Amino acid sequence: MKRVLVIPCLACLCGLVLTGCGGRPTPTSETAPGGGVRRQASGPEPGGEYPRPAKPSRSYTIGVVVPHLSNPHFVGQSYGYIDEAEALGARVTLLEAGGYQYLDKQISQVEDLVASRVDAIILVAINGPGTVGVVERAVAAGIPVINCNVMTDSPKVVARIRSDDEVIGRMQADFMGQTLKGTGNVVMLRGAPGTSWAEIRGNVFKKVMAEKYPGVKILGEQYSQSTPADGLRLMEDFLQTYPDISGAYNGSDTTAIGAAQAILASGKSGTVVTATDFQIDTEKFMREGLITATVLQQTVVVGRWGVRAAINHLEKRDVPAVLSTPLLLATKDSLDSIDMRGVRAPEGWKPPAR
After folding, report:
1. How high is the pLDDT of residue 301?
2. How many angstroms separate the CA atoms of 126 and 68, rounded?
3. How far is 75 from 78, CA to CA, in rounded Å?
4. In the structure, what pLDDT confidence band is assigned to residue 40 with cuts at 50, 70 and 90?
């Protein structure tokens, strides 16, 4: 039986604040000029909960397929794949489909990797049901598939490596409910339709709100392709339809950026905006008080663990069926204590995708 390795979310262990478990800022964190978060100056590299294996017996080629690279989330993840592969003497072929709407292209990319006989494939699925067939064709061809970040519905993957989307939904719900003191009106910008993260995070958010904060009413919810432009458009529509909005849940920070701009333009200051992830504009809007809180996925760690799992499997070592990467909850007051090494690619790094 395959093992399941669940890493506790760091935020839960540290009181949901990024100041260290003692409540003080991490001594080794620094703030870059202009107020931006700089990488932590010292301390263990994030991701050690699933350690780097010994260098493999030979050099492997690993195909990595991601939905797109317009979101810094996937840039950080890609850095994790490529940097970890280099450390282990492996080679990564990185492919992006161009967006969540291009399922056919992602399927074709996986088929091309199978035809080129890569040693393993790491898949970040555009769509859960839609990727089942191509995953199973890869496995039938003798190529193992590691599923990272966004889930395929195929049960034939070696391992699933992801942030726990149920925990993300719960963290946002508890922050929203507590900040609103158990009463108010909330709208939901779920994210890309057909993705595991948009479904799971949003469903858990709704469930927790109903069970723990019944005085908070969810007025409406919408899916979109998860871009700032979508967030702006949807939030403008929500504000016109519902004049009394207290909070806005966002499945990702990409829609939160647009939603925050719409709220600012409407003059409705004080709206609680929650999100997931932490790109540069998210940090900027948090410092300005426009985004209230965000759950940080360790995107670089997801990439590193994907490569480690692939190498371990190829080297005939046991691989847990599920690996859950740590999560962090950030607010304006805790931004300067974030260790960015597991969250973002180094400044200026560009993925060599095709």
Report:
1. 97
2. 9
3. 5
4. very low
Q: Show the 3-state SS of the chain.
A: CCCEEECCCHHHHCCCCCCCCCCCCCCCCCECHHHCECCCCCCCCCCCCCCCCCCCCCCCEEEEEECCCCCHHHHHHHHHHHHHHHHCCCEEEEEECCCCCCHHHHHHHHHHHHHCCCCEEEECCCCCHHHHHHHHHHHHCCCCEEEECCCCCCCCCCEEEEECHHHHHHHHHHHHHHHCCCCEEEEEEEECCCCHHHHHHHHHHHHHHHHHCCCEEEEEEEECCCCHHHHHHHHHHHHHHCCCCCEEEECCHHHHHHHHHHHHHHCCCCCEEEEECCCHHHHHHHHCCCCCEEEEECHHHHHHHHHHHHHHHHCCCCCCCEEEECEEEEEHHHHHHCCHHHCCCCCCCCCCCC
Domain boundaries, the chain: 165-296
The pLDDT of residue 47: 78
Residue 21's contacts (CB-CB under 8 Å, 6 or more residues apart) are 13, 14, 15
* Residue 155 amino acid letter: P
Contact 252, 191 (CB under 8 A): yes
> Is the whole model's pTM more than 0.85, yes or no?
no
Cα–Cα dist 187/199, whole Å: 15
Tell me the pLDDT tens digit for each residue of 119-142: 999 999 999 999 999 999 999 999
Which listed CATH number (1.10.10.10, 3.40.50.2300, 3.40.630.30, 3.30.465.10) goes with 165-296?
Answer: 3.40.50.2300
* CA 278/CA 264 separation, integer angstroms: 19
Angle subtended at Cα 158 by Cα 155 and Cα 163, rounded to the nearest 5 degrees: 85
pLDDT for the residue 345: 94
At 353, the pLDDT band (50, 70, 90 cuts) reads low
Tokens of 129: 């049901």
Residue 33, pLDDT score: 29
